[in-house]
């Protein structure tokens, strides 16, 4: 799914734009997915001033954000940004991106632990090991229960366990929950049993449903394929929708429409008006995907 979204550059811009300290802005969102602009190897162009500005704006929209990885110093940039923005009320699920290469994992684990030693645990709500690692491992036509999927799950759970051992050795002032994020269809009872929390990506645009049905479809998919599955695990992990949103456009006109799912600003507005209010009322834990702080403030839902 990540690769598909990468092909839809405009689709990634699916949240709201705000002006700092706008009195009309409310904290309508349970959580938001966030990646500092430019925090990609090898360029690593993210800068502290921009991230600090983002933290100030995000704190007006939500009390929670989640990151995807730790490369390019983004963990420290975000925690320092929270501090510089006035120690704003933001809880962060840090990220450790994995691709099966131990060097990649170790590099990011080191970045995360270094940031924790520097900034403490006050704003840290969890550490998410992997983002769609299972889906990317078993690929199109595969599944989480085929040999590739099972092998990937073993690798992932080993990384989670190693992260847990590392944190215990640090003797922190509070336990930090450890989990993972993957496609909603990749969740299994065995995966749930090895994590404190599980985040599932649930994008209604890929569900081939009209936007008017997207909020209900998202909730039902999450219940059927993720919540009910993890309820069978003995540890009963906390469940989150890791990503959900609606595309506004596509760089490729041929895939602007996915069956009855049409990418449009109005579609985004409709999804926000329906899903966000419903999810907030029924206590669904979700991270809206993903914040683009330059879109029109008119999209903001204040339910």
Strand content: 5-15%
Q: Superfamily at the CATH H level?
A: Glycosidases
The CATH topology annotation reads as: TIM Barrel
Helix content: 25-40%
Strand order of the largest sheet: 1-2-3-4-5-6-7-10
For the record, what CATH class applies? Alpha Beta
Task: Describe the fold and architecture.
The two termini are 30 Å apart. The protein has helices spanning 2-7, 48-61, 74-84, 102-119, 133-138, 147-170, 189-193, 214-230, 265-281; strands at residues 32-33, 64-66, 91-96, 124-131, 178-183, 197-201, 238-244, 257-258, 261-262, 286-288. It has 303 residues and is of the alpha/beta class. It has a single domain (2-299), classed as Alpha-Beta Barrel (TIM Barrel). 39% of the residues lie in helices and 15% in strands. The protein has an eight-stranded parallel beta sheet with strand order 1-2-3-4-5-6-7-10. Strands 8-9 form a two-stranded antiparallel ribbon. It is found in: Cell membrane. Residues 1-20 form the signal peptide. Its EC number is 3.2.1.39. Belongs to the glycosyl hydrolase 17 family.
């Amino acid at each position: 799914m990540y690769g598909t979204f990468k092909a839809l550059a405009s689709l990634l811009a699916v949240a709201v734009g705000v002006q700092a300290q706008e009195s009309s802005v409310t904290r309508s969102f349970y959580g938001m997915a966030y990646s500092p602009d430019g925090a990609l190897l090898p360029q690593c162009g993210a800068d502290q001033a921009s991230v600090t500005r983002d933290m100030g704006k995000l704190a007006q929209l939500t009390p929670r954000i989640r990151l995807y990885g730790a490369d390019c110093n983004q963990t420290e940039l975000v925690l320092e940004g929270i501090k510089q923005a006035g120690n704003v009320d933001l809880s962060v699920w840090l990220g450790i991106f994995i691709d099966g290469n131990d060097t990649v994992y170790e590099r990011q684990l080191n970045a995360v632990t270094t940031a924790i030693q520097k900034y403490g645990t006050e704003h840290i709500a969890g550490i998410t090991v992997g983002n769609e690692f299972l889906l990317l491992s078993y690929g199109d036509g595969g599944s989480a229960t085929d040999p590739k999927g099972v092998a990937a799950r073993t690798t992932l759970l080993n990384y989670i366990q190693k992260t847990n051992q590392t944190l215990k050795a640090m003797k922190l002032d509070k336990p930090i929950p450890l989990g993972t994020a993957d496609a909603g269809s990749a969740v299994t009872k065995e995966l749930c049993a090895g994590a404190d929390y599980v985040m599932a990506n649930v994008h209604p645009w890929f569900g081939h449903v009209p936007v008017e049905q997207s909020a209900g479809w998202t909730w039902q998919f999450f219940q059927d394929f993720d919540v009910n599955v993890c309820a069978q695990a003995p540890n009963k992990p906390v469940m989150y929708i890791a990503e959900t949103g609606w595309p506004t456009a596509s760089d490729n006109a041929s895939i602007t429409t996915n069956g009855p799912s049409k990418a449009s600003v109005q579609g985004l507005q409709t999804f926000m008006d329906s899903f966000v209010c419903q999810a907030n009322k029924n206590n669904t834990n979700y991270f809206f995907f993903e914040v683009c702080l330059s879109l029109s403030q008119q999209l903001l839902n204040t339910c």
